TrEMBL record:
TM helices/strands, residue ranges: none
Region of interest called Disordered, as start-end residue ranges on this chain: 194-215
Organism (species): Luteimicrobium album
Span of domain Transcription regulator PadR N-terminal: 13-88
PANTHER family assigned to the protein according to its UniProt record, in alphabetical order: TRANSCRIPTIONAL REGULATOR YQJI (PTHR43252)
Protein name per its UniProtKB record: PadR family transcriptional regulator
Entry superkingdom: Bacteria
Polar residues bias (residue ranges): 199-209
Length: 215
């Protein structure tokens, strides 16, 4: 049977357990503190689901169960040797392999030519305000963390996210300016793009067929 790859949240949970035993609520608190919720959906339910999966696969085991006051019992988990090895393997795979991603913004950009230029500009400016705010908050938070002496190697994902936002800001600013100046033409009739393959210099109709498209 083929190996089921760890989900992103399961990988992060496993990485936290690699630093020491934790119960799911502690994991949730740390993930929110690290702002992992900006990267993927994080909730009590998703943490428990990830922990159950890790336990089922032999990557984590219950260590102790305790109760604090009137709170429900909480089970602390620790990583296994297999879990540590799987965490390293999956991390290596994610670092070296380019995998398909499906960002929603890309889909919106692909359909933007159905709208009027003024509306596209207004919508992009609205997004720009949001991304700028996120970038500023991220930058301030990172600066504070670095000032406390946290080594940069522990923050590579955060610095990457910061750079991604900066790149998006620059692209939106440039595109808005091009639309407003007329450099990016928005007046020509709608042009059918179904015969264009951006990954090839050859039109689709010369290289593909309905049968090929189904493969």
């Amino acid at each position: 049977m083929a190996r089921r790859e760890l989900s992103s949240i399961a990988l992060i949970v496993l990485g936290l357990l690699d630093q020491g035993p934790l119960h799911p609520y502690e994991i949730l608190r740390i993930m929110r503190k690290h702002r992992d919720d900006l990267r993927l959906p994080v909730s009590v339910g998703s943490i428990y689901h990830a922990v159950e999966r890790l336990e089922r696969d032999g990557y984590a085991v219950p260590l102790a169960t305790a109760r604090e006051g009137a709170r429900p019992e909480r089970t602390t988990y620790e990583i296994t040797d297999d879990g540590r090895a799987e965490h390293r393997r999956r991390t290596r795979d994610l670092l070296r392999t380019v995998q398909p991603e499906y960002p929603a913004f890309d889909v919106g950009l692909g359909q933007a030519d159905s709208l009027e230029a003024d509306e596209v500009v207004a919508l992009l400016r609205e997004r720009l305000d949001t991304v700028r705010e996120e970038h500023a908050a991220y930058d301030a938070a990172l600066g504070s963390i670095v000032a406390r002496g946290v080594p940069r190697r522990h923050l590579l994902d955060a610095f990457y996210e910061l750079e991604q936002r900066a790149t998006q800001i620059a692209w939106i600013e440039r595109t808005v300016a091009e639309i407003e100046s007329g450099e990016l033409d928005w007046t020509t009739p709608h042009f059918p793009t179904h015969g264009i393959d951006i990954h090839s210099n050859t039109p689709d109709d010369a290289t593909s067929s309905p049968e090929k498209d189904l493969v």
